[in-house]
Amino acid sequence: MPVKKSELYSSIWKSCDELRGGMDASQYKDYVLVLLFVKYVTDKYANKEDALIEVPEGGSFNDLIKLKGKPDIGEGIDKVIAKLAEANELRKVIDVAYFNDNEKFGSGKEMQDRLSKLIAIFENSELDFSKNRVEGDDLLGDAYEYLMRNFATESGKSKGQFYTPAEVSRVMAKVIGINKAKNQDWTVYDPTCGSGSLLLKAADETEHGITIYGQEKDVATRALAKMNMILHNNPTAEIWRDNTITAPHWKNNDGTLKTFDFVVANPPFSDKSWSNGIDPKNDEFGRFEGFGIPPEKNGDYAFLLHMIKSLKSTGKAAVILPHGVLFRGNAEAEIRKNIINRGYIKGIVGLPANLFYGTGIPACIIVIDKENAENRKGIFMIDASKEFIKDGNKNRLRERDIHKIVDVFNKQLEMPKYSRMVSIEEISEEINDYNLNIPRYIDSQEEEDIQDIEAHLKGGIPNKNISELDHYWKIYPNLKSVLFKAGDRKGYSILNVKTQKIKNTIYEDSEFISYSKKIEDIFNEWMKRNILILKSISEASKPKEIIKNISDDILGTFSKLELLDNYDIYQRLMVYWSESMQDDLYFIITNGWKIDFNIEKKKKKEIWDCDLIPKSIVLEKHFLPEQKILDNYKNNLEEIIEQKVTLEEENSGEEDLFSEVRSSSGNITKGELLKRIKEIKHTSGFEDETKILQEYLKLVENESDIKSKINKSESNLDKKLYYKYKTLMEEEIKDLVIKDKWMISLYSFIMSEIERISQKLTGRIIELAERYDIPLPKLIREVDELGKKVDTHLEKMGFKW
Question: What fold characterizes domain 157-446?
Fold first, then answer.
């Protein structure tokens, strides 16, 4: 089977990173990504008429391959890239980094070897776009994004700001409704576009395409963005190099700022030099008129006001800014007040800390919407700061977090401790004074688990604590009365079962069993619908479209259930997709519903397996009796080995009965056993040793016999299994992959969610039971009684206090 897409990118990164030497990741990326770009345009456009990119003679990846091992390889690479740049007006885009650099790659043989190996990485046959038949799959574009993310991670603070995490970019694109763009004439703009990842994620959300504009002041980063656009099939995107605040490029004929349908941006946080080169009081574009001038040493609002000015009257924007913009005072407070009073802010999403490369501070997404702004009565706020997963030294939004933010924001759903619509009236109250700090309006803190003093003194479990589990009692109403009964005091109950039986009581309860069956039935309904979709996968299918459809369906299917969080179920599916299912899908779309074996030689023996349908699935489906016989043999072998170990341990003390039969390596061989038994068999005083050695010999013979049976059974079963794979028909393959692999895996994930929430209930009840099990007075009496017993024993021993 071909290399998995998920493994391909990581292997490229590992190979590139090994060749980096002492070069900083922020520099090295410029070399690696240029080579990937040359590879891409060669695969896609070489020898094609009317191609968007011309691949000239002497300017292709094939010309780079010819340079491998040559003494002048550095100079040669620069010449090849220069030819490609010259032919496509890509000067100062793909030729900003020089390969013939002794300081970067060493000199002589060292440079020759490092650059040759670097080129060889991208010769990987699996990284061939010309053979990539999966529609809508940006194989090299995705590889470029993967490498950029890793370079951003490695680059450290102040050097990783060229990349906005894809997860955040997707949220921003979805909350501004860019999917409503009706045709290519609609526009999206990023005034600080970095490597362009945010613009591309926004464009991905559109069905009919969109015209892309960007500006970036850093030369090398602008080059990354331009290459990124071409790699992701947006070669006409306009990316300009200059400072957006001091020299905005996109203007109308009359010199005013060009306006756009959508704006997305992740500007540099709190830029201290934003005003260098302009007079903010006399800004020729009027960006600060009616709002106020941002502080000289903090440019957050300068960028925000530039974006507001760059929006059409119905335009929408999403910008990432540090939380400080929500509450800082003085000049910023006045600007914030003026923006709020114009109704421009539609919503704010508070994000987790440590998401971004280059900074660990928490940030927020401010959503601007000029359409109908004058009638806006409130700002919709979301506190998503606590929902993320750790990923190395950074935090990352999960698929469930992305979907939840977008759903809640776009549907304006109010959820306790997560989201609410805050009226402008409340925001403008004297106590708040236009402060937008999210904790003022959403209390996302977990309630403290307060101890009940009376229960500690007098016993019983507080009914208040039991009522906190009402979301369980709605599903299991009778279970509550099974577990608890009224105590002798009002407001307190006592446990109706022994603590050690709580778990079994819950799991054996008819309501619990009924709820589990309901979940199973709901999953089966979803499964039946989606099996039909998955069985229709063909060469024309689009993997990303398929996973979107089936994942949205599972989210909706489980949306009305109590206890189970449908976003947790959705996350389970998306994790399985990324870890296994997407590789299967890409293989099927590329190769059809066919079997492909992995074969490797081990000790002159061919070992085979199949990634698409692992052996375990076919064994369970078609060879269960044979597998059971084999498993029994293996269990017998384990028993024999345990008996041997026990016999050795019992007779290997000071007088080691096995010392005479051990080889120099410590092993006990059959030959040595037979030899020793023959020596002592008829010798007086050695009867016990003879008996033990004969017993051990019998175990050795049995072990040899059972191993022979195992080898024979495994060989026969392997032949049957291989023949079965070879004779599988397409419909059988579909059933094995979809039903016995994908659906069974997903079913087990969902059942584990039920297990998790049930364990949570069990754990909480046990915690309450143990917390209030022994009242304090009883503990004091027990301590007192034990103390008296100790005193009595001490007196008997002659000690007296």
Answer: Rossmann fold (3.40.50)
Gap between the Cα atoms of 550 and 127, Å rounded: 28
From 295, 257, 304, select the one nearest 275 (Cα to Cα): 295
> Are the C-beta atoms of residues 17 and 136 closer than 8 Å to each other?
no
Terminal C-alpha separation, the chain: 82
The answer to whether domain 1-155 and domain 157-446 are alike in fold is no
3-state DSSP helix/strand/coil percent for the chain, to nearest 5? 55, 10, 35
Q: What ranges do the domains of the chain cover?
A: 1-155, 157-446, 605-727
Burial class (CB in 10 A: 0-12, 13-18, 19+), 362: middle
Angle at 588 between CA 568 and CA 572, to 5 degrees: 5
Partner residues linked to 257 by β-bridges: 251
The Cα-based distances of 309 to 256, 258, 290 in angstroms read 10, 9, 12
pLDDT, tens digit (0-9, with 9 covering 90-100), for 374-401: 999 999 999 999 999 998 888 999 999 9
Of 179, 183, 180, 145, residue with least CA distance to 165: 145
Determine contact, residues 762/497, Cβ cutoff 8 Å: no
Residue 133 has pLDDT above 50, yes or no: no
Using CA atoms, how far residue 492 sits from 460, 481, 482, 766, 772, in Å, is 5, 14, 16, 16, 11
Instruction: Note the pLDDT tens digit of each residue in 453-510.
Output: 898 888 899 999 999 999 999 999 999 999 999 988 999 999 999 999 999 999 999 9
d(CA 13, CA 738): 32
Contact assessment for residue 434 and residue 427, using Cβ atoms and an 8 Å cutoff: yes
Per the CB < 8 A criterion, the answer to whether 482 and 511 are in contact is no
Q: Kindly report the backbone phi and psi dihedral angles of residue 770, in degrees, each rounded to the nearest multiple of 5, phi listed first.
A: -75, -35
CB 43 within 8 A of CB 128: yes
> Whole-angstrom Cα distance, residue 153 to residue 331?
35
Q: Tell me which CATH homologous superfamily contains domain 1-155.
A: N6 adenine-specific DNA methyltransferase, N-terminal domain (1.20.1260.30)
- Residue 657 has a pLDDT of 79
127 touches 140 (CB < 8 A): yes
| pLDDT tens sequence across 580-598 | 998 899 889 888 999 988 8
List the one residue out of 403, 752, 738 whose CA is nearest residue 580: 738
What are the Cα distances from residue 679, in Å, to 322, 497, 658, 689, 690? Answer: 86, 66, 14, 11, 10
**Residue range 711-722, pLDDT digits in tens:** 999 999 999 999
Joined tokens for residue 670: 């059959």
Would you call 602 helix, strand, or coil by DSSP? strand
125-129, 410-414, 456-460, 660-664: which range is least confident on average? 125-129
- The amino acid at 489: R
Q: 785 pLDDT band (50/70/90 cuts)? A: confident
Distances (CA, A) of 617 to 594, 614, 647, 744: 16, 6, 39, 10
Phi-psi region of 604 (alpha: psi -120 to 50; beta: other; left: phi over 0): left
